[in-house]
What does this fold into?
Amino acid sequence: MVDQIGNCRILQEIGSGGMAVVYKAVQEPLGRTVAIKALKPSIAMDSGFAKRFEREAHFMASLQHENILHVHDFVKDRGTMFIVMEYVQGIDLYDLLDITPRLPVDIAAIIALQVSRALDYAHFRGIIHRDIKPANIMLSHQGEVKLMDFGIARDDRLTDLTETGTGLGTPSYMSPEQILGDKLDFRSDIFSVGIVLYQMVTGRKPFVEDDARTVMQKIRLDRYTSPRKINPAVPRTLEHIMGRCMEKLPANRYPTTQALIDDLQDFLASRVPINHNARLVMYLREVGVITDAKAEEILSASAPNRLRRGNGDRRMVTQMWAVQGGLGAFAVVAGLVLQGVSGRLGGDPDQFVAETGAPVVPQRAGHLRFVVDPWAHVEIDGQPVLTTPSAREIALPPGDHYVRLENPYYETIDRRVTVREGETQLIEETMVERTTAAEGEAP
It folds into this structure.
């Protein structure tokens, strides 16, 4: 292993493939941790692989977007080439699906949305990725989604590096026109996004090879199994989004990548009332990718800033409590909230409770905890207390209480609950979708 590449000191090898090796390094003048992708010395500098490697560096360096891995430098040295890139501490989607093959629909939609934003930015600049797959999608510990590996991307303004009639990519995620070797446009990437989204919510790919047909034949000729047959929890709206992405004919897919983004945003608006990055951090914690302490550190860091910007807004405070409550950090958050507003309220806890709706913990109490699919605003005895998802337990005096779960896209649920001193009761509900003309869906 080399010790130094340009002004970067190599720390360790973190990955290897057929064409390249990836190192973790420190860019010494800045003290910045970076990743270095090195073309293997066995690859000739004048080969097609080397040309694609260099083109990848140029593509990624020209794309400065929060959802695309950043390139800092490109070095030719010792008869080979190196790409100095942003180092992302996290997990790629391929490995996440190995840990948990089926993701919650909101998590899958958030990932698809961020990938689509990266693609929309690239597509506007005439660049088609051509290799959208879980291994090229990174989730950082901070809840960011990064699209990687533009090694076989194509720029409409440049000549292609593949022969006519040759499909280059990963077969299970290719579009029909990519398999046929036809000229591609941005709609090929949209087809691949649909495949990845399908896999995230069902735990399997839509087109799988069998004795009768290859995966490429199935992509071109066969209809996939409805995702709702595999996972009934998939909402019809999301099923329709996947279906439009995976139309066989490009003309029947989304007319622009922005149109796909719009539909994913509309889908998430009713299901994820908190910051999308925060929701991803919470999920990475749930599946053990990051620790409770790390997740609490990441989420707590942004809480005071949200308080200052919101100037004590009740909805913002409730959402912050929902995020932090998911980590069981009731006392920590309460301290942050009181500290953040103490100057404005003069340190009066009663006034704080009146303005924010924060619950007062009785001395003799039982507790309620809520798990609601997909999410709900929770009212107890007519007072809003939290928005799920949240693991925060609500302390209440013993006796009967009236619980209401509201979501504008679902039927309201009303329940009477008896709270017993010293006991914690789990309220677990699945919201039932409203059947409205606005949805345009059959029940």
About this structure: The chain has four domains: 4-86, 90-269, 291-356, 359-443. Residues 157-167, 305-362, 437-443 have pLDDT under 50 and may be disordered. The chain has 14 helices and 18 strands. The CA atoms of residues 16 and 89 lie 17 Å apart.
